[in-house]
Structures are given as structure tokens and as C-alpha cells.
Structure to design on (169 residues):
């Protein structure tokens, strides 16, 4: 049975694994190896994740995990980016567990927290060409707003992110 819960220090290795595996699975054909390795090293190392699972505020709601038989099979996190606007920062599932509803369950949990903090709207960035993420977010009511540079690009990189938005009830 899958449970959706707040992550704790015991989930760090699982979050790191699921985010790294899903990042490679999603972006290997869209982004350079150098970029992928740089982002994984910045965001999905245990030292950073330990700080993030113990930190909770309006701007960082803390990691939500999908757990089955003690194993993390999905992870996501969001926060408030202004008084009425929330953002989904990260949402990944075990690449072998796609299309099982895990992403929907995690998105719902993150969104519920954002609504509790006063969010009336929700934002997400999706890498241009990400045909795993784009249909998922569009099916959830997110609408494309504009294209922008991908986070953390360096000179010589031209990766783009698509900014999506939806209104919350």
C-alpha cells in the first residue's frame, strides 16, 4: 500500500535516489550530461536534502514522499512564492512506476498544503520538450504562460523551461 506523507530524515536516501533516477530518465535526451550532473549535485545530495526535510516554512513546505513497503517511490515539494501564489518546485516518481497515480497523489498533497497557506494560484516550470511532464500538468489544468531560460544554465547552454499556471479553487 502506498502512503503519502511528510518526509523525514529516514527518507533522504530514497528522495535522492528517486529524484536522481527520474531526472536521468526524464532529461537524458533533452539536456546535456554536464547540466544533469550539475543539477543533481546541487539539489539531490543527502546533505542538502537533510536540511530540506527538517526545514518547513511558507516558502518551503517540506518534502512530501510516496512510500511503499518502506521505500520512497515518489517525492515532491512546493512553497509559496507570493501571498497568493504557490509553486510546485519538484515532482518525481520512480521511473518504473509511472502511470500509477503517484504523481497525482503527491501533487494533490503539495497543492493542499499550498491552499492551507493561502494559495489561489499555482505555478510550475517544465523543461521544454519534456513529454512526460507537459501532458501530466496540462491534464491537471495547468496552462502554458511563457518560455524562459532553464534554471542554472551557464554560458553556451540554451535550455528552456516552460512556465505553467493554474487557478486553485
Amino acid at each position: 500500500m502506498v502512503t503519502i506523507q511528510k518526509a523525514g530524515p529516514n527518507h533522504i536516501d530514497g528522495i535522492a535516489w528517486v529524484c536522481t533516477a527520474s531526472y536521468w530518465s526524464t532529461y537524458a535526451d533533452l539536456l546535456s550530461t554536464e547540466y544533469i550532473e550539475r543539477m543533481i549535485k546541487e539539489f539531490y545530495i543527502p546533505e542538502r536534502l537533510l536540511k530540506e526535510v527538517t526545514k518547513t516554512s511558507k516558502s518551503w513546505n517540506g518534502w512530501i514522499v510516496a512510500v511503499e513497503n518502506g521505500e520512497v517511490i515518489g517525492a515532491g515539494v512546493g512553497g509559496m512564492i507570493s501571498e497568493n501564489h504557490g509553486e510546485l518546485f519538484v515532482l518525481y516518481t520512480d521511473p518504473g512506476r509511472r502511470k500509477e497515480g503517484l504523481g497525482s497523489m503527491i501533487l494533490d498533497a503539495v497543492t493542499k498544503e499550498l491552499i492551507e497557506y493561502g494559495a489561489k494560484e499555482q505555478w510550475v516550470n517544465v523543461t521544454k520538450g519534456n513529454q512526460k511532464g507537459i501532458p501530466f500538468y496540462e491534464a491537471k489544468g495547468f496552462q502554458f504562460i511563457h518560455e524562459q531560460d532553464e534554471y542554472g544554465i551557464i554560458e553556451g547552454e540554451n535550455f528552456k523551461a516552460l512556465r505553467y499556471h493554474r487557478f486553485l479553487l
